[in-house]
Amino acid sequence: MNQFWMLPAKIRDEMLRDGLQRHPEEACGLLFGTFDGRQGTIQRYLSVANHSKTPQHAFELDPAVWVRSCFDPQLIGLYHTHPSSPPLPSPEDLRQLPIFAAQIRLYLIGGRVSFANDKPPSGPDGFRIQAYGIDSNGTGYTLLPVHQENQNGE
Predict the structure, then answer these.
(1) What's 12's domain CATH number?
(2) pTM of this prediction exceeds 0.85
(3) Mean pLDDT computed over every residue of the chain
(4) Rounded to whole angstroms, how far apart are CA atoms 42 and 13?
């Protein structure tokens, strides 16, 4: 997958704050921006209530916000956190992927990493955001890591 995404520092910080404020529950939200088929820019993050019955281990976007947002042509992705694990797709993330995959191009996961050198500049200690592109393989969807860069060069 040959995609490149720009994540402005102010939006990254907003996403990180949202995750910290909702800890130990999973935070979730939607990403809006532009994408030309190869390069995209995240322009806005919308924090969305997590309606999961087990919010410490899963997320469920507020259905009313999700449906309304599906009509926004700038909807490009979603974000959620793994409060106590790495930002890797979980089995539950992959099980739920078909619910979102046809509407979005980008899937961001924020999570804890065990190595101090993985701490992003100006970010919470041990927390990192990983970007994944959504690939349709004819029989389903997969998440593939994509390159992301903060607009301030980080």
Answers:
(1) 3.40.140.10
(2) yes
(3) 87
(4) 13
Distance separating alpha carbons of residues 147 and 107, to the nearest angstrom: 12
In this structure, the dihedral spanned by the alpha carbons of residues 7, 3, 135 and 57, taken in order and rounded to 10 degrees, is -20
3-state secondary structure of 21: helix
What does the pLDDT look like over 20-30, one tens digit per residue?
899 999 999 99
Look up residue 105 and give its two tokens.
């191009």
Q: Which range marks the domain in which residue 91 is found?
A: 4-150
- 10 Å CB burial of residue 153 (0-12, 13-18, 19+) is exposed
Q: Provide DSSP, 49-84.
A: -B--SSTTT---B-HHHHHHHTT-TTEEEEEEEETT
CB under 8 Å to 31, separation ≥6 — which residues? 42, 44, 45, 46, 75, 76, 77, 78, 79, 104, 106, 108
Looking at the chain, the whole-number percentage of residues with pLDDT higher than 90 is: 68
Residue 137's pLDDT is what? 82
Q: For the segment 69-91, what is each residue's pLDDT rounded down to a tens digit? A: 999 999 999 999 998 889 999 99
In whole angstroms, what separates CA 115 from the centre of its chain?
21
Number of structural domains in the chain: 1
